Structure formats: C-alpha cells, structure tokens
Amino acid sequence: MQCFLESRDGQHEPVTLPDGVPVVLGRGPLTRVTDKKCSRRQVELLADYRHRAVRVTQYGVNPTSVEELQLHPGDSSTLQDGQTLWLVNGCYPHTLRFLPAPKSPRRSLLDFFSPKRRPLAKGEEGWPSKRPKAPSPPEEQEEEEEDSVVAMKLRQLQEMAASAEQAKGGASCPLQGEPSGPPPHPRDSWEEHGKLLVFTKEGVMPSAKVAGFDLDGTVITTKSGKVFPTSPDDWRILYPEVPRKLKQLQREGYKIVIFTNQLGISRGRLRPEVFKAKAEAVVEQLGVPMQVFVATGTGIYRKPLLGMWEHLCEKANSAVALAVQSSLYIGDAAGRPPNWAPGHKKKDFSCSDRLFALNAGLPFYTPEEFFLGWAPAPYQLPPFDPRELDPQGHLYDPPDAPLVSPTPELVVAVGFPAAGKSTFLKSQLVPAGYAYANRDTLGSWQKCVALCMAALQEGKSAAVDNTNPDPESRRRYIECARDAGVPCRCFLFTATLEQAKHNNRFRDLTSTGHISVTDIVLNSYRSKFVEPSLSEGFAQILRVHFVPCFADAHQEALYRQFSEG
Ligand SMILES: Nc1ncnc2c1ncn2[C@@H]1O[C@H](COP(=O)(O)OP(=O)(O)OP(=O)(O)O)[C@@H](O)[C@H]1O
User: Fold this and answer.
1) Does the UniProt entry include the keyword Acetylation (predicted)?
2) I need a labelling partner for 310 at 20 to 30 A (CA). Which of 297, 352, 490, 503 fits?
3) Which is nearest to 235 in space by CA: 200, 279, 188, 288?
4) What is the ipTM for the molecules in this complex?
C-alpha cells in the first residue's frame, strides 16, 4: 500500500504520505505554492493506511478545506481516499490516493502528467464541489487505471534517482516506501561542497525521520574542562546516556545526523584533516552509523541558516523526503540566560541551535532536556525576528505626507548601513525623476553636494543616500537646498541595529559588489546618531519603515531565516 497527495492541477509531483509519519505541507518548493496566504506550515497530514484515511490538522492562519469543510487554525479533520484537500482559501486542490501494488498502465504517462493543466479555483467547472459519489464499477476501473499510472510515474522517478546515483558512482537509492527499501551507505566517505563537509559512515540508512544533534556541548565536551579543546583529542562524550539514546533512536528508525559549525577551519585555526579525524573518532565511539555535516565558514551552511539542513533534504538522504515534524534537533546553543539551572551559572554562548531548529520547523530540545529528562529551561530569542515582518505593513509616517514632491526638493536619508535606504530610494524616488547621490559610489560628500546642487539648479529633485547620523553630516545638504531655494526633507529609516545586521548578512549572501559592513561601522553609526529634528532646517521628517518585498520565494525564504545566534 502506498499513499500520495496528488496536485489536481499538476503543479508538482505527488507527495508521499508514509504510514503514521506526519508530513507538513504549505508554501514552498515541494508544492510550488508561492501564494503568501498559504503558510509555509499550512497543514499537517498524518496517514493511516489501515483506514485508508489521512488526519488533516491546520496550522496556517487561512483556511484549509477538506472537501466542503473549512478548517480553522488548530482544527483537524479526516480526508478519505479520493477526497479533495484545498490547501488554502479554496485553492490548490489535491486528491488523496491510496494505491495498491501498481499494475501495468493502459495509458501513456504523458496523458496524465502533461500537458500541465491550468490551475482551477474551487467551484470552477471540472472540480468536485461536493463529496464524490460512491464509485460505481466503471469509475472504480477508471480510478485504478489512473492509480497505476501515478504509481508508475513514481517508479519512474525512483529509477531516475537510482540511475543518477549510479552514474555518480554511489549506491542505488529507491524512493521511500518501496518494498526493497533503500540500501545502507556502502562505505565511510567524506564529501566537500564549498564551505560544507559531509561525512557519511558506512551503514547509514536514509530515513524520513532525522534526529539532528549539535556536536560540541551537546554530544561531546572537552576532557580538559576548558571551553575550547586544547588538542585534537581533548574531547569526551558529554553524558553516558548519549550513546544509549542514539542507539535507541536508530532502532526507532531515525537517521542520526550531526550539524556542527567549525568556523576555525576557514579561519585557519583548525586543519580540516584534524577535524575530520576527530569527527570519525567521535562517530566510532558513539557506535551508531551517522552523518556529520560540518560548516567550515560563514555563509549559508553556518547555523542557524539552513544550508546544511537543505543539503541533507535535497542531496544527502537518497531522495527520501524528510518529515520535519517527526524529526527533532538537539543543541546547547539555546539562548538560555545566566543561572538557567542550579549549578549552570553561565548563559548560553548563543541561540544558534534553537534558531536553526526554528528556521527548519524542527522540534527542539537542549541536551539536558533530551538526554537527562530535565524540564525545559527559560530562553530568549534575539530581538529581531525576520519571520514577523509584514509585507502589508505601512511604509511611512505620517501616512498622509506625500512620498514624492510635485515640486523640486532635496531628500536626505538617515539610517543604519543596510537599513534599506538604497533599495527604498531607488524604487520610490529615482523612478519619479529624483537625482541620486551616494557617497559610496561618488567617493566624497563634496561630490554628493555638487551632484545635488546641479540637479536642483536644473529644476530637478535630488535624494542623498548616506547614513547621515548627525546634524553636521546633514547640514551640508540642508544648506545646499536653502541655497537653491527648495525645501529639504529628511527620510529617517527606522530599521534597528539588529535588523541592519540581518540585512547586511542577507546582502552578503545574495548580492555581489557591496562591501560587507562590519559591526564596528554599525556601532559607530549608533554612537554618532542624533535624532533629526525640524530645528535643523528640515521642512518635514518622514519615518520610513522596512516593508519586506522580495524578488522571489527563494529570497524570501532566506531572508525570513534567523541568520545569527
Ligand atoms: N524592502 C525590502 N525588502 C526586502 N529586502 C530588502 C528591502 N530593503 C532592503 N532589502 C535588502 O537589505 C539589504 C540592505 O539594503 P540596502 O542596500 O538598500 O541598504 P542601505 O541602507 O542602502 O545600505 P548601505 O547604507 O550599506 O548602502 C539588501 O540586501 C536589500 O536587498
């Protein structure tokens, strides 16, 4: 028996629903849904093969429907074989299919899977608006025929995955749910993907359920008692419970994976061979086949960013889809405050493990909670939460002020580096004809003043895109506007220091040609900052808020991850 959720409008390949393993679906690459009304974690689906049904639980804000029944957040309902699930707001219909062993198809695959059907909205002709009638024998036959075609398509995908693996010299890896089951990893191996190293121990099995662990402070600690190891063999297993618990997880079908940040490697403080030998020795001592992901530098692989997790999902689990809600992640960088438990005086050095789990949607535990059964400790998340930014938020205050002036003016930006000044001015003012002055590109503030003066004399407006933290830096432009006889407005960008740091990291990851801003530069802005005031000579001060807007879903997914612990 196999169970699939099939996109009725052919938007994506059928999603496998393993028996008893919760699968969370929503906006994202799996469903190809980009609609913001659909949460990334819209519904949880739990298949029950014995009753040929799936329990649907809504997590998202907007309604998911099971046939005619509209759910609310937290509601659950049962989806039966052949029934339709509308992912959100009556859109994105999916049919539940339980398949017996595949039969040989009587129809071409292409008949069923292509050409792509146009997405239909709920109620539109061609989609059931009511529960389907009890199938009569001919309908049953028709359904069986489609079923076998779906099954064959899946088999074909499996064969493609297997032959791709073979072509790479790896083992053939059937998709999850096939009777033969994926084979274990044949031999110990290391792979390198830029700033990512991956060790796979002989015998590792792919699985939908992953038990992920941080390394230092979670699975091992130093023998010396120092915070940092004093030599390559300065390590020991953190708690005696660790190997026992890992073996139990393995017996329960979890794949054990370690995710570790080792910035020292790219900083030249730790030789990769030395760390590799240590990782292999730790795995050996734990006595369980596992994978070890090592982020050797900054960038997308470094926790809390999801590069390592995504690599596991996409390239290192033999095409077996991961069930995030049934997986878990354990780490000691959990944002716990000082004295979080008796005898634990120090606060956690960071929150990056908890944030990594939050970014991935993984259930999270500290080592003490997981291995020792302690009660959850208090913790603090960073002050800036990229998940909370509202794309419908209002852009500036006061809201009744004109954004663009019909008569010439000079606009002076004030804000942290990476607050979003250039993006805003280039998208809002430059298209309206404002000349644009930026010290980074022109080279000096004198050249900025000259460019503004020239534009104003031509009867054009101008905008100055510098941080301008204090009255002295702003005065040059106020005087320039006064000399030209035009008003000068201040656009104060309200993004906080924490958000500016996040934006800066995002910019480093997504664009080239901009020098990364250091914390020293950001802190220098903060210490120089003097709130702009009308008394400096501004005609108006507009407070400009950061309203997120992204080129595509991939960029948004990256921006909305916590990027530093
Ligand atoms: N509204 C927005 N939505 C999403 N991302 C944004 C938005 N505004 C800016 N960003 C991103 O934030 C980063 C910093 O933005 P930007 O370069 O505009 O800042 P800035 O204040 O001009 O920086 P600097 O002073 O260092 O030149 C960029 O990666 C940009 O793509």
Assistant:
1) yes
2) 503
3) 279
4) 0.98
Tell me, what's the pLDDT at 180?
53
Return the CATH class of domain 189-372. Answer: alpha beta
Architecture of domain 396-547: 3-Layer(aba) Sandwich (3.40)
C-alpha 500 to ligand 1 mean position (Å): 8
**Is the CB–ligand 1 distance for residue 422 below 6 Å?**
yes
Q: pLDDT tens digits for 83-130?
A: 999 999 999 999 999 887 555 433 322 222 233 333 334 444 334 333
CA of 437 to the centre of ligand 1 (A): 16
* Domain boundaries along the sequence of the chain: 2-155, 189-372, 396-547
Buried b (16+ CB within 10 A) or exposed e, 261-296: bbeebbeeebeeeebbebbeebbeebebbbbbbbbb
Quick check: CB of 469 below 6 Å from ligand 1?
no
The tens digit of pLDDT for each residue in 545-561 reads: 999 999 999 999 999 99
Same CATH topology for 2-155 and 189-372: the answer is no
Element (H, E) at 511: none
CA–CA distance, 97 with 346 (Å, rounded to integer) = 53
CATH number for the domain running over 2-155: 2.60.200.20
Q: What is the number of residues in the chain?
A: 565
Out of 30-34, 252-256, 555-559, least confident range? 30-34
Ligand 1 center to 471 CA (angstroms): 23
Q: 465 is written with which tokens?
A: 């895109």
Nearest CA to ligand 1 atom 31: 507
Quickly tell me which residue has 């890896």 as its tokens. Answer: 173
400 C-alpha vs ligand 1 centroid, how far in Å?
25
